[in-house]
Amino acid sequence: MTTVIKTIPEWVATRNSLGTNTVGFVPTMGALHQGHLDLMIKAKAENDIVAVSIFVNPTQFNNKEDLAAYPVTFESDLEKLSSSGVDYLFYPQYEDLYPDQYRYKITEDSFSKTLCGQYRPGHFDGVLTVVMKLLNIIRANKAYFGEKDYQQYILIKDMVSSFFMETEIVGCPIVRDDNGLALSSRNIRLSEAGKKLATKFANLLKQKNVTAADIQSEGITVEYLEEVRNRRFAAVKIDGVRLIDNIELDR
C-alpha cells in the first residue's frame, strides 16, 4: 500500500528516517498511464525506495482553460501506485510549494525559448521552478522523466547540472500504444475520431520527409514541426487538445 504524504515537514521526517536507502523519484501531474508506470518500474529496479509526486502545477500553464481541463483521477492514480509497489506519494497543495506566490522562478534563456517554449510563454519557467522545488524537497538519488517531453527532459537535466544538484536525471524512452500513439494524460480528452487522428499524426511523424502540410492535410492543426538535436519535434491540436511527440532521426 502506498503511503500518502501531504505536507513538506511530513516528507522531510520520512526522508530522514530512510537512512542510507536510495530513493528514486517520479514527478507527475496525475492522470497516470503506462508511460508513468514504466518510469516507476525502472525507479523500483534501481532504488530501494520509490516516491512519486502528483501536483498539477498551475505555473506551467499559459492557458487557463487548458489548466481547468487537465484530467484529475486521484483515486485511480492511487490504486495504480499501490499495485506498482510505489512506497510513497507526495501530494502537496499550491500553498505548500509556492509560499512566495511564485515571486521567485527559474528561467533558462536559450533552448526553452524554442519549440514548445515559443508557443507557450512562461511554460518552462513554471516547469523548471516546480521541478527544482520538488527535487530539493524529495532529495532523491535519481529522478525519472519520459522522453516524450524531450525538451523538458533536456532542460531539467541541464538545470540540475548547472546548479550542482545531486539528483541524477534519468531519461526513459517514449511509451506508445500498439498503434504507435505516444501515451499522454491528454489522450483521455480525445474523442474516438480524435484518437484515430492522433495515431495518424504519430505515424506520419515517423515518415522520412514528412512536412507540416502532410499532417495538416489530414485535418490536424500543426503548431510546429522542427528538426533539432537530431530529433524531429512536433506539436499539434486535435479536438482542441494539444499533443506533442518526437522521434530520434537516423543519421
Into which percentage range does the β-strand content fall? 15-25%
CATH topology name of the largest domain: Rossmann fold
CATH class of the largest domain: Alpha Beta
Determine the oligomeric state from the structure: single chain
User: How many domains make up the 3D coordinates?
Assistant: 2
Helical percent range? 25-40%
CATH architecture of the largest domain: 3-Layer(aba) Sandwich
Sequence of strands across the biggest β-sheet: 1-4-3-2-5-6
Distance between the termini: 46 Å
Largest sheet: 6 strands, parallel
Count of alpha/pi helices: 10
Whole-number radius of gyration? 18 Å
Coarse shape: globular
Structural class: alpha/beta
Number of strands: 9
Low-confidence stretches: none
Molecular structure report:
- This protein has helices spanning 8-17, 34-46, 64-69, 74-83, 94-97, 116-119, 123-138, 150-162, 192-205, 212-216; strands spanning 3-5, 23-28, 49-54, 88-90, 142-146, 168-172, 221-228, 231-238, 241-248.
- The protein has 251 residues and is α/β, with parallel strands linked by helices.
- The chain folds into 2 domains: 3-172, HUPs (Rossmann fold); 185-246, Pantoate--beta-alanine Ligase, Chain: A,domain 2 (2-Layer Sandwich), CATH 3.30.1300.10.
- The protein has a 6-stranded parallel sheet, with helices on both faces. The chain has a 3-stranded antiparallel sheet with strand order 7-8-9.
- A hairpin with a 2-residue loop joins strand 7 and strand 8 (231-238).
- Helix 7 crosses helix 8.
- The mean pLDDT is 97.
